[in-house]
Amino acid sequence: MLKADIVSGCSAAGSDLLAAAGLDRLLRSQGIASEYIEFSGNVAHISNANRLRILNCMGLRPGCAAELDAMLKQREALQQSRLLPPVYLLAPEQTEVRLNLAAFQRNEPLQWQLQHETGRMQNGKLAAADLLAANGSLKFGMLSPGYHTLVLQQGQHHGSTLLIVAPARCWQPPAIAAGKKVWGLSVQLYSVRSERNFGIGDLTDLRAVVKTAAQQGADFVLLNPLHYLDLRYPDNASPYSPSDRRFLNPLYLSLPACEDFAADEVQAAFLQDGHEFRCDALRKAEFVNYAGVAAVKLPLLALMYRQFMRSLQNSQRHHRFRQFCLDGALALADFARMQATLAIRPEPEFADAGFHLYLQWLCAEQLAVCQREAADHGMVLGLVRDLAVGSSSDGCEVQSNPGLFCLDARVGAPPDYYNPLGQNWGLPPLLPEALVQQRFGHFISLLRSNMQHCGALRIDHVMALMRLWWCPNDAGNGEGAYVHYPVDVMFAILRLESVRNRCLVIGEDLGVVPPEIRGYLDPAAIYSNCVFYFERYDGWHFRKPEHYKAQALAMIANHDSPPLRCWWDRLDVPLRRKLGLLVSDDAMRQELEHRQGEKGQVLQWLDEQGLLPASWQDRKVERPLDAVLTAAVVRACGRSASQLVSLQLDDLAAADTPVNVPGTSSEYPNWRRKLAAPLSAVFADAGAQAMLQSLAQERPR
Fold it and tell me: pLDDT tens for residues 168-191?
């Protein structure tokens, strides 16, 4: 259609896009859903007005029905002109691809070249008649799992396709594959106290957690995301809103564990500038003072880099650094260059890209030490890392990938019982079409970087590989629509990278979960996530341990829910009222009464397992939680059918406040609350020992 015709059509039709016949086709072609199943199980319909706003966020802004029709025809014509899509998924036993005959030139032979991932080349030429007789089937033999490039040329038409061959299942350690049940600890690393850290839990603290947990019989330690946060704004501390998910947060570095920290110049600065006294104050503080920690650690790291550069020589250490930089390739180099432009601090080292490479290298080295510690102590999995669902819009990951993220929308969740306005998490989503055109390079890089130095990876909101709730920037809340992603390809890549990196995968599947996601998790050996508070038959009666899902990570609580003591003593309810999350005192009273009933159900649940302590036979739910009842709950969870069971370090420490309250920002000190006692005291506590022993007895090594 000519532009003049489109303009004329727009004048005649006005802007009545919502009634245009082709609107739904265009919206669906971009993956914008028209309905979804709510948490209640009911079908919710998404208005075309909201769907159209999401289309506009993607950069597609038809002004009228005629423009919409022209846009749709152009996009459909482009698809029909391709012999193969940019990415083509093959099963391991598949030996052929099927070409789009609508794009085939029937009088021209087809030349093809297949470059295997190993570099081996295959070439071929087919007469048009032979290809037509084979109904467009191009055969080249069985391919090994991996990424291969197929180049096609027919006459003037030339194109290439990424062929992905993926295994059917993710990797599992032999013991897990054989059905072994294991347990571990969940740790918010920043919250860990010790007698030696700088006011924030660090990677030496993590090594101590790993060693102590392994000695108690644990097989893994589940971490909060360790992603890189923007060092310009250290108080923006949410590990789930990072600057870049591909790299690590240097505030977790244990400086005394670094060789360069021992240099005379660094030691002199540490003592003369009063850092030792500042560290003592930071250690004693109730909350993590991220700005204070950064003010101590970052200048010292700059001095350490200066020392490192002075001692450059052909040593094993410098060889490891150079190899690390080579392995990180372009993504690491671009990250370092971008950090050097940000004026993070006045020290000249911060304007040196090499300094940021040095920080990432130190982080990787210390994390690798922790994983080796786990292996040396016989842990089946060791570290379990956590991958957040997105990164901040002004962060390095988004800014260094122009066109890959939608900056006019944010990720969130649709309205539900707990959040009637929906949720807006403030993170820009990946553009599905751009992801495909980029051949999923960023997604592959993201998985690879987060599967390093660990035995498993937990993927937050694993449904994002199928769909994400998009909120337009102008909405200000959770209003929006679901956008679907190339789910088959994304899960295939996940399986392939899992096997290559020998990394078990856990998909966090809490909240509004589409039924179809189970077909991607269960057959692929991707573990689900169960939280005790929510595991109920009918919203009221707690699920028996033997009825828990076997292929799952089960836990009592997680970072988005209150610790067990806080939940039992109902301390989270008045807190939610104080923060405005409960709208009235009547609502708070109803919640408090409801919780008492839930606690009665917990006691009944324990009694059915023969685990209700003698001191709780009176069933007086108004009593505060004690160590005996806590150990009984932990033991019952240890008996669950789930292969993986995790206990929070918060629950070991009997924490009575949450580390994070969803729906709040500055109203509550999220991601800052420390454990009440140092790590050594937490593990030495008699109540903590009872919990650990109950898990070790239910799930022996």
Answer: 999 999 999 999 999 999 999 999
Q: Give per-residue pLDDT as tens, 531-560.
A: 999 999 998 999 999 999 999 999 999 999
Phi, psi of 152 (to 5 degrees): -120, 140
- CA distance linking residue 525 with residue 543, whole number of Å: 23
What residues are paired with 469 via a beta bridge? 412, 482
Provide the whole-model pTM. 0.95
What is the average pLDDT across 589-595? 97
The tens digit of pLDDT for each residue in 3-21 reads: 333 333 343 343 577 777 7
What is the Cα–Cα distance from 248 to 228, expressed in whole angstroms? Answer: 5
Instruction: Please state whether beta strands 456-459 and 382-387 pair in parallel, antiparallel, or not at all (unpaired).
Output: parallel
Termini Cα distance of the chain: 70
Q: Look up residue 475 and give its amino acid.
A: A
Return the pLDDT at 418: 66
Backbone angles phi, psi at 180, to 5 degrees: -60, 140
State the chain's maximal CA–CA distance in angstroms.
Answer: 87
CB atoms within 10 A of CB 274: 10
Distance of alpha carbon 360 from alpha carbon 195, whole angstroms: 25
Could you tell me if 232 and 392 are in contact, meaning their C-beta atoms sit under 8 angstroms apart? Answer: no
Render pLDDT for 25-68 as a digit per residue (tens, 0 to 9).
Answer: 999 999 999 999 888 888 999 999 999 999 999 999 998 888 88
Contact in structure between 67 and 17 (CB atoms under 8 Å): no
- For β-strands 467-472 and 481-484, DSSP reports them as antiparallel
The answer to whether 408 and 459 have CB atoms below 8 angstroms apart is no
Tokens standing for residue 76:
């459909």
Q: C-alpha distances in angstroms, 32 versus 127, 345, 411, 515?
A: 40, 43, 14, 18
- For residues 145 and 641, what is the distance between their CA atoms, to the nearest angstrom? 33
Structure tokens of 449?
A: 């970087």
SS (H, E, C) 21-69: CCHHHHHHHCCECCEEECCCCCEEECCHHHHHHHHHHCCCCCCCHHHHH
Cα(636)–Cα(368) distance, rounded to whole angstroms? 34
Find where tokens 């007005």 sit: 49
Segment of 61-75, 378-392, 406-420 carrying the highest mean pLDDT: 378-392
List Cβ neighbours of 78 (8 Å cut-off, separation of 6 or more): none
CB atoms under 10 Å from CB of 119, counted, come to 6
Partners of residue 456 on adjacent β-strands: 384, 504
Closest CA to 30 of 482, 515, 402: 482
**What angle (nearest 5°) sits at the alpha carbon of residue 109, between those of residues 108 and 110?**
120
User: Which of these, 471, 470, 642, lies nearest to 544 by C-alpha position?
Assistant: 642
On whether the CB atoms of residues 361 and 257 are closer than 8 A, the answer is no
CA angle (182, 188, 192) in 5-degree steps? 110
What is the number of helices (H) and of strands (E) in the chain? 24, 23
